[in-house]
Amino acid sequence: MTDEERARKEAALRELDELSAAYEAAKKPFDEARDALHSAIVKHLRERNARPGEVAKHTPYDRNHVGRLAKAAGVEPLRKRTVRSVRADD
Questions:
Q1: What predicted TM-score, i.e. pTM, was given to this entire model?
Q2: Residue 78's pLDDT is what?
Q3: Residue 90 pLDDT more than 70?
Q4: Do 52 and 42 touch, CB atoms closer than 8 A?
């Protein structure tokens, strides 16, 4: 490897290191904000302060994703299932 090639490689790796560090620094506040938003969504759905569709209108998520967050957190659905799935062993 020539001195010029080595210098270009080192410059490229330095640039990637700097940009990766900036990315990681920006990622932490984003992750914290997302986690806080998810906690608030779950809290308000659990307390029945607003319906999932209303929550979705005030967040960057659609109502299906709001429902997935609620389900993952163990929030009981507003309505019970009315249709029972049919199984061969029933």
A1: 0.71
A2: 82
A3: no
A4: no
